[in-house]
Amino acid sequence: MEFINESEINSLINDDKLNDPVFQKEIIQKSKVAKGLSLKESAVLLNISDPEITEELYCTAREVKEKIYGNRLVLFAPLYVTNLCINNCLYCAFRKDNKELKRKTLTIEEIREETEFLVKQGHKRILLVCGEHPKKANLEFIGEAIQTIYDVNINGGNIRRININSAPLTIEAFKKLKNFGIGTYQCFQETYHYKTYMEMHPDGPKHDYAWRLYAMDRALQAGIDDVGIGALFGLTDYKFETLAMLSHAFNLDHRFGIGPHTISVPRIEPAFNSQLSHKPPFAVDDFSFKKFIAVIRLAVPYTGIILSTRERADLRRELFEVGISQISAGSRTSPGAYKESQETLEEHEMEQFQLGDHRTLDEVVKDCCGLGFLPSFCTACYRSNRTGDRFMELAKSGNIGKMCVPNAISTFSEYTNDFASVETKIVANEFIQNEIEKFNGITRHKTEEMLKRVNNGERDVFF
Ligand code: SAM
Ligand code: SF4
Predict the structure, then answer these.
(1) The model's pTM
(2) CATH topology of domain 66-384+387-392
């Protein structure tokens, strides 16, 4: 665990010399080339409090995100397949000692129904989520679930990339998971602070800090190219958590030549029958939240940053401006909730935590267009084998945006043709037209050709 150096991180946080506006401005300038920052430089930016410098930080984070990814926002939805769990994480409604929670594991038929609902909304990417349970959520079940999801096809609408957020596995088991055809393997360390970790995870397999910390190493060794890390903000000081998570990212990059494909930044939300989640020990305020997201964007410019529907719509809008590149939309966090189109009381007795953004995918899509962000349902990189180091190379050189924007436009026009409401369609078509006009030459020609094919009924068009 030597790469999470608690004393080094604490001394960076407590070093008064790093709380210097001149130094902060210098580092913001340096970060504009989108080559990333060191741990010390990131610590300096986390100290920013002056409103003018904060604004500079936000503008630079947006600039860097645009440089690498363009104005795209990738959309996905989680699919919870079981809320059974043998762990006891104090902040989570699924913990095994929560006897009040209604337990449910979806049948294969129910997984198909949930997928059909999501496909009919227009989703193309799913994040499969489950509690840790050797019987109910074993590899065989996960494999069958993944196959079921990929098999759903409604008039050319289908799920084209399944990412998964599940408990850490052995290398052998990760190899099997890879062969099921997953995209990103996600697992959050929750807190990198060892003592806090041990308190928050009093028993079960999750009590083993190191087993979880090295999950990504095993996944990468097993050949899973894209891994997603994260921390659950609110368990310990956010500066510590951010710097420790960056240490993890730098370490993966250093040792495997690829950093994390994504970083997630969940904040603790109220969870049914979990006292701790209603009053997190280190609750992060909105200002600090926005600031550390911007710092992560500048520290690891090539990494996707994921924001979920845990956050309120108004705050999500603000955070899109400082470097978020992937968002969930129209989410539910209890198994089987999608097929009930209305929220039900029973659903809340089965869900993992409460959501902050209850809008439908259609509403989020329309909103994104209004804000100048291009909603993307693209999965081309994954299916063209541009994963792992091949993806990173494109991202690090800033070339991913050039390829991704046309592909994003193509999948977005698929969405507008098949799923958008009348009002969203009007806004979206105008938006697409404006996007195309930004191109010239061969890229414009290729994009227009793709759009023609989509408008003529062809689906899954990309280059
Ligand atoms: N059970 C697996 C695990 O813990 O790694 C994977 C799925 S778990 C449902 C996914 C994530 O939900 C956890 O890693 C944790 O960060 C997050 N989570 C748990 N309780 C939460 C809460 N009250 N608010 C926000 N996020 C929460
Ligand atoms: Fe189980 Fe994951 Fe919830 Fe912990 S966070 S109780 S491991 S589902």
Answers:
(1) 0.96
(2) TIM Barrel (3.20.20)
